[in-house]
Amino acid sequence: MHAWPASDVPALPGKGRDLRIHDTATGGPVTLDPGPVARIYVCGITPYDATHLGHAATYNAFDLVQRVWLDTKRQVHYVQNVTDIDDPLLERAARDGEDWTGLAERETALFREDMTALRMLPPRHYIGAVEAIPGIVPLVERLCDSGAAYVLDGDVYFSVDADPHFGEVSHLDAEAMRLLSAERGGDPDRPGKKNPLDPMLWMAAREGEPHWDGAGLGPGRPGWHIECVAIALDHLGMGFDVQGGGSDLAFPHHEMGASHAQALTGEHPFAKAYVHAGMVGLDGEKMSKSKGNLVFVSTLRRAGVDPAAIRLALLAHHYRADWEWTDQVLDTAVGRLARWRAAVSRPDGPPAEALVEEVREALSNDLDAPAALAAVDRWAALQDTTGGTDEGAPGVVSRTVDALLGVAL
What we know:
Distance between the termini: 31 Å
Order of helices and strands: EEEHEHHEHEEHEEHEHEEEHHEHHHH
CATH architecture of the largest domain: 3-Layer(aba) Sandwich
Shape: globular
Strand order of the largest sheet: 5-4-3-10-11
Structural class: alpha/beta
CATH class of the largest domain: Alpha Beta
Mean pLDDT: 96
Largest sheet: 5 strands, parallel
Number of helices: 13
């Protein structure tokens, strides 16, 4: 599976700062110090309804992580998956009388278009669950052979008791885990499981549903969590720098994935930091497919909204915050974009060296994009009121906003 084209990232003078970011597993900030190549895995879409603003906010957060790392003169090895086989996809296809593969391909293509428009840096490896199946099956077999997995009526389950570190990502109690498992794709009430929280690794073929050769596992398809584990281990290995996604993935997805990988390798941790973006709401509720209260990037684009304004609307909120999309949020972003473009269009302006460092400092401090926007606002206001004589300043500001915030002025 191919990703989307990369936009150029301007090089800035000097060097950026190491990123200090909130780690869900420790419950506090950690300073990331990757080697020459920073490694990040961000969980991708299930392609049946893309790309809503909740998606966009999440991928915007991890795009900032990449940009901060690039500014430190590191390379970035970014991997993202596409869950192109799963129950919600099949259910949507059946509801609409559509072939599930066609639905997945269309929504994935739309997601690529939206990511390109928003100038999100693409992953080096963009891998679909279906194409990962040949690598998933041997991992499930290894878990079975080690006693970390078991078979129940043809389905293969992971035993969470096989990982002594289970629970160290989300730090939830058993009852909270059970409730979230039922809400987020698990089956805690299925009779015969060793532990209600045990997640499925391999689903035996069901009548009328797609399935693949599982070698010794029998025909079937992979569970959700093992998909990401197989892709991450294949392309990044254990102990990569950041596992990212929305806050609703901390449990069960990232918790289970970490335990799968740790049981497979005997190593800990799966990722050095678990970073989660907040949820975007609409009309007082979290924006979600199940509620149907979605605002789509493609809809805004078709209505003539500049993608740079959409990105500024996302950047106006701290990535960990839950917030609500309103017309006012977009209007504010449109106005900000116009002011910034007017400010950098002049032939000279106030000195901008300090601005570069302000933006760097803000983003290195747990991706504080609102503080970075405020710094650019102050420069633009000074440009508007007093101007300046530095001929290079507007270009410096334009390149800084492009390189670090992903907004082309």
